[in-house]
Design a protein that fits this description.
It contains five helices and two strands; from the N terminus they run αααββαα. The chain has about 140 residues and is mostly helical. It has a two-stranded antiparallel sheet with strand order 1-2. The longest helix has about 35 residues. It is globular.
Amino acid sequence: MTAHQRPEVLAQGVYDALERAGNRGLSLEEIMGETSYTESQTRRGIAYLRESIPQLKGSDAVYTYDPAENVYRTVYIPEVAEMYEILRMRGEATRSYRVLTGTILPHSRKSKAKQLRTLKRLYEFVVDETNEMLEPAEPG
Protein backbone atom coordinates (compact mmCIF):
# COMPACT_ATOMS: atom_id res chain seq x y z
CA MET A 1 0.00 0.00 0.00
CA THR A 2 1.45 3.37 -0.92
CA ALA A 3 1.60 6.11 1.68
CA HIS A 4 -0.37 8.59 -0.43
CA GLN A 5 -3.82 7.30 -1.23
CA ARG A 6 -6.73 9.50 -2.21
CA PRO A 7 -9.19 9.85 0.68
CA GLU A 8 -12.03 8.29 -1.29
CA VAL A 9 -9.91 5.19 -1.89
CA LEU A 10 -9.10 4.95 1.82
CA ALA A 11 -12.76 5.47 2.71
CA GLN A 12 -13.81 2.69 0.35
CA GLY A 13 -11.36 0.28 1.99
CA VAL A 14 -12.66 1.20 5.45
CA TYR A 15 -16.25 0.89 4.26
CA ASP A 16 -15.64 -2.56 2.76
CA ALA A 17 -14.01 -3.77 6.00
CA LEU A 18 -16.89 -2.44 8.13
CA GLU A 19 -19.48 -3.98 5.83
CA ARG A 20 -17.79 -7.38 6.16
CA ALA A 21 -17.80 -7.00 9.97
CA GLY A 22 -21.55 -6.26 10.08
CA ASN A 23 -23.11 -5.69 13.53
CA ARG A 24 -19.90 -6.63 15.31
CA GLY A 25 -18.10 -3.54 14.02
CA LEU A 26 -14.34 -3.07 14.10
CA SER A 27 -11.90 -1.22 16.32
CA LEU A 28 -9.32 1.09 14.76
CA GLU A 29 -6.68 -1.62 15.05
CA GLU A 30 -8.95 -4.20 13.43
CA ILE A 31 -9.70 -1.86 10.52
CA MET A 32 -5.97 -1.35 10.10
CA GLY A 33 -5.48 -5.12 10.01
CA GLU A 34 -8.33 -5.66 7.53
CA THR A 35 -7.18 -2.91 5.16
CA SER A 36 -3.39 -3.00 5.66
CA TYR A 37 -3.57 0.79 6.06
CA THR A 38 -1.37 2.74 8.46
CA GLU A 39 -3.06 4.43 11.42
CA SER A 40 -2.95 7.76 9.62
CA GLN A 41 -4.47 6.29 6.46
CA THR A 42 -7.17 4.54 8.47
CA ARG A 43 -8.11 7.71 10.35
CA ARG A 44 -8.21 9.63 7.08
CA GLY A 45 -10.42 6.95 5.52
CA ILE A 46 -12.76 6.99 8.53
CA ALA A 47 -13.01 10.79 8.43
CA TYR A 48 -13.81 10.80 4.71
CA LEU A 49 -16.27 7.93 5.10
CA ARG A 50 -18.10 9.68 7.95
CA GLU A 51 -18.77 12.68 5.71
CA SER A 52 -19.46 10.84 2.46
CA ILE A 53 -21.48 7.79 3.51
CA PRO A 54 -24.86 9.51 2.94
CA GLN A 55 -24.01 9.85 -0.77
CA LEU A 56 -23.32 6.13 -1.32
CA LYS A 57 -25.70 4.91 -3.98
CA GLY A 58 -27.62 1.72 -3.29
CA SER A 59 -26.58 1.59 0.35
CA ASP A 60 -28.51 2.10 3.55
CA ALA A 61 -25.29 2.18 5.59
CA VAL A 62 -25.13 4.57 8.54
CA TYR A 63 -21.75 5.48 10.00
CA THR A 64 -21.53 5.21 13.78
CA TYR A 65 -18.86 5.01 16.42
CA ASP A 66 -19.66 3.16 19.63
CA PRO A 67 -17.58 4.64 22.47
CA ALA A 68 -18.76 1.93 24.87
CA GLU A 69 -17.26 -0.86 22.74
CA ASN A 70 -14.70 1.33 20.94
CA VAL A 71 -15.82 0.13 17.50
CA TYR A 72 -16.89 1.67 14.21
CA ARG A 73 -19.92 0.39 12.32
CA THR A 74 -21.92 0.95 9.16
CA VAL A 75 -24.94 -0.84 10.61
CA TYR A 76 -27.76 1.15 12.19
CA ILE A 77 -28.28 0.25 15.85
CA PRO A 78 -30.66 2.86 17.34
CA GLU A 79 -29.09 3.14 20.79
CA VAL A 80 -25.57 3.36 19.40
CA ALA A 81 -26.59 5.84 16.70
CA GLU A 82 -28.26 8.10 19.26
CA MET A 83 -25.23 7.98 21.55
CA TYR A 84 -22.95 8.76 18.59
CA GLU A 85 -25.14 11.67 17.45
CA ILE A 86 -25.06 13.22 20.92
CA LEU A 87 -21.30 12.70 21.11
CA ARG A 88 -20.82 14.44 17.75
CA MET A 89 -23.21 17.30 18.56
CA ARG A 90 -21.50 17.96 21.90
CA GLY A 91 -18.15 18.02 20.14
CA GLU A 92 -19.42 20.46 17.53
CA ALA A 93 -21.03 22.66 20.20
CA THR A 94 -17.74 22.74 22.10
CA ARG A 95 -15.82 23.59 18.94
CA SER A 96 -18.31 26.36 18.12
CA TYR A 97 -18.06 27.69 21.65
CA ARG A 98 -14.27 27.87 21.34
CA VAL A 99 -14.53 29.73 18.02
CA LEU A 100 -16.99 32.10 19.67
CA THR A 101 -14.97 32.78 22.82
CA GLY A 102 -11.50 32.64 21.27
CA THR A 103 -12.04 34.50 18.02
CA ILE A 104 -15.44 36.07 17.45
CA LEU A 105 -15.99 37.68 20.87
CA PRO A 106 -12.54 39.29 21.15
CA HIS A 107 -12.77 40.59 17.57
CA SER A 108 -16.36 41.76 17.83
CA ARG A 109 -15.57 43.83 20.93
CA LYS A 110 -13.14 45.88 18.86
CA SER A 111 -14.99 45.76 15.56
CA LYS A 112 -17.61 48.11 14.28
CA ALA A 113 -18.56 45.67 11.52
CA LYS A 114 -22.23 44.77 11.68
CA GLN A 115 -21.57 41.34 10.15
CA LEU A 116 -19.23 40.36 12.97
CA ARG A 117 -21.66 41.45 15.69
CA THR A 118 -24.46 39.55 13.90
CA LEU A 119 -22.26 36.47 13.61
CA LYS A 120 -21.48 36.72 17.32
CA ARG A 121 -25.20 36.71 18.20
CA LEU A 122 -25.83 33.79 15.83
CA TYR A 123 -23.04 31.69 17.34
CA GLU A 124 -24.21 32.46 20.88
CA PHE A 125 -27.71 31.35 19.94
CA VAL A 126 -26.57 28.13 18.24
CA VAL A 127 -24.27 27.12 21.08
CA ASP A 128 -26.86 27.89 23.76
CA GLU A 129 -29.64 26.03 21.93
CA THR A 130 -27.45 23.01 21.20
CA ASN A 131 -26.30 22.71 24.79
CA GLU A 132 -29.89 23.02 26.00
CA MET A 133 -31.09 20.30 23.61
CA LEU A 134 -28.32 17.94 24.69
CA GLU A 135 -28.98 18.26 28.41
CA PRO A 136 -30.19 14.96 29.91
CA ALA A 137 -33.97 14.71 30.16
CA GLU A 138 -35.55 15.24 33.55
CA PRO A 139 -36.56 11.89 35.10
CA GLY A 140 -40.24 11.17 35.50
